[in-house]
Amino acid sequence: MDDCLTAVIESIKEEFGDEISPSSRFYVEVGIGERAETLGFKNTGKKYRDVRAIIPLKRPVSGMKVRIDGRAFVNYAQHVSGVVLPGYIAAEAGLPVEPFLPNDSMILNFN
Q1: Is the model's pTM score more than 0.70?
Q2: What ranges do the domains of the chain cover?
């Protein structure tokens, strides 16, 4: 279990808390490495520099939107909070997760 990684995921969960809708097709991405560095976890930030968490949202946000094939999310896991992670990240963090079941098409929101 990686305590730094767990703290990063908890931070993301706290930021988006009430906006998360686990089965939504609308989502934003949050950089795990960037968030780790913001929280002061430099080594974790470097290790997960290019890894993104997916936050399914209750409603779309303003800005550009791109439709993504739901099959792109193979081997992703969903934390009980609704935050979606690549499966290997969820395993390293040791958090309670279930397989992520995306919609046929997902809509990435850029803001």
Answers
A1: yes
A2: 3-109
